[in-house]
Every structure is written in structure tokens, then in C-alpha cells.
Amino acid sequence: MVIETSNEKGTYSFGCRLGEKAKSGQVFTLIGDLGAGKTVFTKGLAAGLGVKEPISSPTFTIVQIYEEGRLPFYHFDVYRIGDVEEMDEIGYEDYIYGDGVSLIEWANLIEEILPEHYTQVKIEKDLEKGFDYRRIELCEY
Known about the structure:
Elements lengths: L1 E4 L2 H14 L5 E5 L6 H11 L14 E4 L6 E5 L7 H5 L2 H5 L4 E5 L13 E7 L8 E7 L1
């Protein structure tokens, strides 16, 4: 599935719709360059899950946990992971195989430990189509 958005609101809204439909145990992986709109998408997904508190990137903490929505939301940013063994140290499997919804930014860096089934969200810019244009591709694995 491919969605095209022309502004941040469209990217946020698409994330929100996915959050509203998300099920317990669902894992999303998020791929995109810096500035592609990963944070905007993540904020929308969290809103769709009913998370009201501000969403911040867990770049230095690796995982942020939000428990106030209709399902727990586990937001990972693995950009700074040096070795996949670091994921064991934070209890990664407890989250992704738990009852909440997990979103993993930069998931391509930990492909070898991703669960068998997940939804990949790939966000790309195309400046020829406009500064705020985004192409969002969903792939089920």
C-alpha cells in the first residue's frame, strides 16, 4: 500500500488512522531519512492509540513507554544502537511480544532480531513534488 501526503497534517492523519486500527502485539517498523517525517507519523500513531502526553524521540533512552492509551505504546529509536545485544539489555522482547503496540525507528539496523510478522512503514521525500510531499509505503511481513 502506498499513501502520498502533501503536508505534515496528512502524514499525522495517516499515522492516526493506523493507530486507531492497531491491535495488541502489533509491531511497526519505521524507515526514513532524517527529516522524512518519522516523528510526525509517530505522533499521529500515538494519537490514534489515545496517547495524550507529548511524544518525544527516545534517541538516547532507546525506548519510551506510554501506557495511557487504549493499548500500551512502545516507541523505540535504535539509531544509536551499536550492537543488537543492547536490545536484550532493555528487555526488547518483553515489549515487542507483549500486549502493546511497538514502533521501531531505524529498524533496518536491527533486522536480524525483528519478529516474524511486522508492518514496515517507509517514508520518503521527493523535493521535485514539493518540500512537504511524502510517499509512505506499508509492507506486511
